[in-house]
Amino acid sequence: MALFRALVTRAAAAPLQFQAQKFSPVVAIPVRYESTNLKDVLANKIPAERENIKNFRKEHGNTVVGEVTVDMMYGGMRGIKGLVCETSVLDPEEGIRFRGYSIPECQKLLPKAPGGQEPLPEGLFWLLVTGDVPSEAQVKAISQEWARRADLPNHVVTMLANFPSNLHPMAQLAAAVAALHSESKFAQAYQKGIPKTQYWEYVYEDAMDLIAKLPPLAASIYRNVFKGGSSVGAIKRDRDWSYNFASMMGYEDAEFIELLRLYLTIHSDHEGGNVSAHATHLVGSALSDPYLSLCGGMCGLAGPLHGLANQEVLNFLTKIVGEIGATPTEDQIKQFILKELKEGRVIPGYGHAVLRKTDPRYTCQREFALKKLPNDPMFKLVSNIYKVAPPTLLDTGKIKNPWPNVDAHSGVLLQYYGMKEMNYYTVLFGVSRALGVMASLIWDRALNLPIERPKSMSTPGLVKFVQNKK
Prior knowledge:
mainly alpha; Citrate Synthase, domain 1
């Protein structure tokens, strides 16, 4: 146990929170773990974090975090502070931070592929799991391990091949992920009666296997639905996760692979309250294995209010081009937006449930486009909408959050590099989101979080409660 010296690095806000509450977390000398074995590094962090949270709850378990209003209950629990998510925090003004690091910081600090400029998703996963910025050797070890674990069982390959081509790619993804339950090391170990302290070890193994298998699984869906069922080819053991994913889909362009690395990194996590993250956590809280848990998350991601939003943005852009041309003036764009609003439609890609400024994920994609495709007509259209939409929406007096989110940009970039199959974009989102929700699920089991079971009330019960309170 002498190796258990380090406290997991927390998100930037966490130490401030503890300080404000006069809580003293476990004091540990910061240690940089040089091991390239992620599981060993994690094993050295978990005991200190368990003790840290145990002491925190003992001292402040009765502290009131917030209040719940009737509007919150009817409004989708919007704004209710009711979950713990260690991997990322979403600030309304600043945007997402992964374990305390902003997207620009991640772009700067996380290891890149040889000759590349965008972070490798493997490095982001290491950061989400451990709180540490990994070395190049540690990231390379993850790439190699995922390549080693990537083979799909025959029954899943057969299942994918037998799906009708008109079955939506997200339905295929969710079904195939659920079918991988046959490979669950956690489910097998649980049946044998392992102690709770070991749950995380088997969830970790399942999470690593699942993430490794997602590129060939998702690429098979792409090939079966859009490329006549052609083979995905073999995993290249000496290449990174994104490279293999792109190659299996049939994309060899170096710029597209760089875009995919960026895409898979920035879509990975968005704190714990979004539908896909919350659904995965909720299903996992019942001790369902990572495969079944991610299946639940992917079913949520498939909804038009979550993962399908980038597809709606492209439909909106296509509508603009069809009605007012490919190079409309700013005034024409403004009038088109006002017409859409008057007819009761929203402007897809603008607004967010939490963010109150331009989404940093939009910004980094815009910076990529400015470097790689500054003269692309669709990018220019997106840029002009970016100039016009926020002030136009604000002027209506009805919209408080007029800023673009991640979905306002991603589809245009994918289309530029030849991926025009909009029905597939959410699958890419799902492959990325697995990184965040699996990192969280490992910690859910490491901390022995219980089954999630909030209390619900009926409308008559709420009426009576309010009347009694008055």
